[in-house]
Amino acid sequence: MNVVSYTVVLFANILINSLTLGTVEALGNTVSAWRIVMTIFTTAGTILILLSGLTVKELPQDNETAPSTTTLPKNSLANDLQNVFKNPYFIWAILYAVVVNFVLASNLSLSLYYCEINLGDINIYSSLSVVVLLACLPGLFMAPRIVAKLGTFKCNVFVSLFIVVLILLSLPFAFMDTVNRPLFYVTFCMRFLPFGVLCASIAPIVPSLVRYSYLQTGRHLEGLLYSSSSIGGKISSGIAAAMPGWILSGIGYTADATTQSGTTMARMNFWFYALPIISGLLIVFIFSRLNVEKGIRELETQH
């Protein structure tokens, strides 16, 4: 079911990325045009969320009981928050939600301006983003087998490390005097080949956190744990949206210039490769601390 839902999301992203720049251009390519397009997308998203919320039914809980040795305090938000922070994996889970979403969003955001500054044609972004998202598709269908063989923890660590390796392999092309477009397309899409696996393999993390907290405290904390993960994703989306603006101001980008200076192009080239490597290494470190499966096994042996 996770694979199906992620596939639908993937094709929705492809549709949005392929339509956005063309629609903005048709509306005059102004700030108002961007506002209109974002309003349309926001309205459509809100309607779809409301429809899903009204049509999804909650499944009944399994007949499981809290550990008999646990003395449950009075149910309250303060007690539930305290129980959430007792979970040693909670902070790492929030960090993974922030960083993984940030890496994906910032890569795509930076590629928009890389197409304009270094490739000289911002319209390349539409086709490039479609190819990138299609590159993620095989990994989505491979993920169940890989997770079944390695487990969630090993899968996340190995796949995130593989992403860093693929980015490092593309580094020689960063030092070429002129950008070879076919090679750029291939090496850029290589970055995203493992992302399909990663997007699917991280799905069990929050349910595992829920299971760990239940075994630890006897409380069902699904609401707090899922909402915390969702907040992490929204934080990263906000940072990823602001990041290109900060980078553009730092590299000397001139909005009304036909072509950018050599220094600006070199600095953009640096950030285009450095930011994914730094954030990728951070993902590897976070996942190395997020072995929830092991924690669950240890608690189950205690009970």
What features would you describe in this structure?
The protein has 303 residues and is mainly alpha-helical. The protein folds into two domains: 1-47; 77-302, Growth Hormone, Chain: A, CATH 1.20.1250. Helix content is 77%, strand content 0%.
The major sheet is characterized as: none
Number of domains: 2
Give the full name of the CATH homologous superfamily of the largest domain: MFS general substrate transporter like domains
CATH topology of the largest domain: Growth Hormone, Chain: A
How much is the average pLDDT?
79
Level-1 CATH class name of the largest domain: Mainly Alpha
> Which structural class do you get from the secondary structure elements?
mainly alpha
CATH architecture type of the largest domain = Up-down Bundle
User: What order do the helices and strands follow?
Assistant: HHHHHHHHHHHH
Strand runs, count? 0
Tell me the helix content.
over 70%
Give the C-alpha Rg: 22 Å
Are there runs of 5+ residues with pLDDT below 50, and where?
Answer: none
Summarize the helices and strands and which ones pair or pack.
Blueprint: H1 2-26, H2 31-55, H3 77-86, H4 90-117, H5 124-150, H6 152-169, H7 181-192, H8 195-201, H9 205-217, H10 222-251, H11 262-288, H12 292-302
Helix pairs in contact: 1-2, 1-5, 4-10, 4-11, 5-6, 5-7, 5-8, 6-7, 6-8, 6-11, 9-10, 9-12
Compact description:
The protein has twelve helices and no strands. By secondary structure, the protein is mainly alpha-helical.
